[in-house]
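Homework help board

Subject: predicted structure for assignment chain

Our instructor gave us this sequence and asked us to write out the predicted structure in token form, then describe one feature. I got the tokens but I'm not sure how to describe them. Can anyone check?
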Amino acid sequence: MYDVLSLPAAQTQAMIERHLVHAHPHPRSYQRARLIALRRAQGVMNRLYRTERELVLRPNEPVAAQLARFSEAQQRRLCAYIEERRARFGFSESEEYKFYLLEVAYELRHQPRTVGTIRAHTYYQLDELLSGKALVLHATAKR
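My token output:
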């Protein structure tokens, strides 16, 4: 298990932060991680998130019945995210998406960023992201 899964989210960052929900086409072969970091443009990370809940949905179909087992607050967050994403970006890559209900675990006030451009997911050690360094090395780059 890795400490932190880091995902590119430049265009959707504000929407994710507003609703504390992230989604990607399902399935994807991410390794388990304790926390999630979302990367802005130039690989900047400003927060680490814990996953409150994970679920797989078909967002292009009516979702109310799919969300019945969640609290009202969670249903509101998911529905608002799905509505906004559908209007701005759509859900066209896959029939199923994996959704993460997030909660802020750490504020990264020093806003560390990646060394170079990383277009895909990557992994970090928690101590690397909390070290205060401006440039951080992902777990596979550390030697």
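Reply (TA_rk): Your tokens look well-formed. For the description, you could write something like this. The chain has one domain: 2-136. That's the kind of observation they're looking for.
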